[in-house]
Amino acid sequence: MIYLIHGEEEFLRSRHLAEIRGRIGQPDLIDLNTVELDGARLTLGALRDAADVIPFLTQRRLVIVRDLLKAVQAGSPISPDALTEYLDHVPETTDLVLLETRAAPAKHPVVRHLSALAEKGKAQVILCAVPGPRALPSWIRQRAKEKGGEISPRAAALLANAVGQNLRLLDTELDKLIAYAGNGRPVEPADVEAMVPYTQEIKVFALTNAIGERRARAAFNHLQQLRSAGETAPQLLAMITRQFRILLQVTE
């Protein structure tokens, strides 16, 4: 099977690559049947030498080529025509992974060829893009299910707002939250507020925003929440001062 894993989201690329590596066989044989190549210096002969080797004590062999399509576009020793021709002859016992750190253009001749092979079940084209702000809470909930846990929609939205689009950090925070919630109940907003430090920054911003807009009741509510969470008066004053200093710097 040939895989094109491309896109800027490193966490998703790593996940898909780990899944492919896990199919090679026993853990102690994975490294013996895995080869990584630098696409910028690769020749077609070197690619053939790596991919045409018979697996050792396993059913499959893994060949990972990093940024080959980027190199082909820049005029590498491998031409698009030569590469697409070889892709039709990759041994069935080899999993060839083309790992691209940027999204490959749909009009790239190799991408078009791989898309045609994908329709025949001989390739997979996997785009690793960061979910947009609206889709991020859904991604968080799905990822929690994959981990054997559950997170409520409100908690997922709160976590997305607190951490942002850093998927690796979100994944780490989910591990922590699922363990904190334990078996039998979903992660709730209170769990996120208790366990994720970034939520405090959101509350401080909400507090300073309310102060700036002279919404006294809302400001006191946010202040009380922060005090209940354990923030001391000097800490809060320092954070409020920092927020307004940033606003002044932006204004200047």
Please give the share of residues in helix: 55-70%
Question: Unreliable segments (pLDDT under 50, ≥5 consecutive)?
Answer: none
H and E order: EHHEHEHHEHEHHHHHHH
What is the helix tally?
Answer: 13
Strand-residue proportion = 5-15%
Number of strands: 5
Shape: elongated
**Mean pLDDT, rounded to whole units?**
88
* Strand arrangement in the largest pleated sheet: 2-3-4-1-5
Instruction: Classify the secondary structure makeup into a structural class.
Output: alpha/beta
How would a crystallographer describe the biggest sheet? 5 strands, parallel
**Through-space gap between termini:** 57 Å
> What is the C-alpha radius of gyration, as a whole number of Å?
25 Å
Task: Detail the topology: elements first, then pairings.
Blueprint: E1 2-6, H1 10-22, H2 27-30, E2 34-38, H3 44-51, E3 61-66, H4 68-73, H5 80-87, E4 94-100, H6 109-119, E5 123-127, H7 136-146, H8 153-163, H9 167-181, H10 189-195, H11 198-212, H12 216-228, H13 233-251
Parallel strand pairs: 1-4, 1-5, 2-3, 3-4
Helix pairs in contact: 5-6, 7-8, 8-10, 8-11, 11-12, 11-13
What can you tell me about this protein's structure?
With 252 residues, the chain is an alpha/beta fold. It is built from 13 helices and 5 strands. The protein has a 5-stranded parallel β-sheet, sandwiched between helices. α3 links the parallel β2 (34-38) and β3 (61-66). The N and C termini lie far apart (57 Å). 27% of the residues are buried. The mean pLDDT is 88.
Descriptive terms for the model:
single chain; 252 residues; alpha/beta; five-stranded parallel beta sheet; 5 strands; 56% helix; elongated
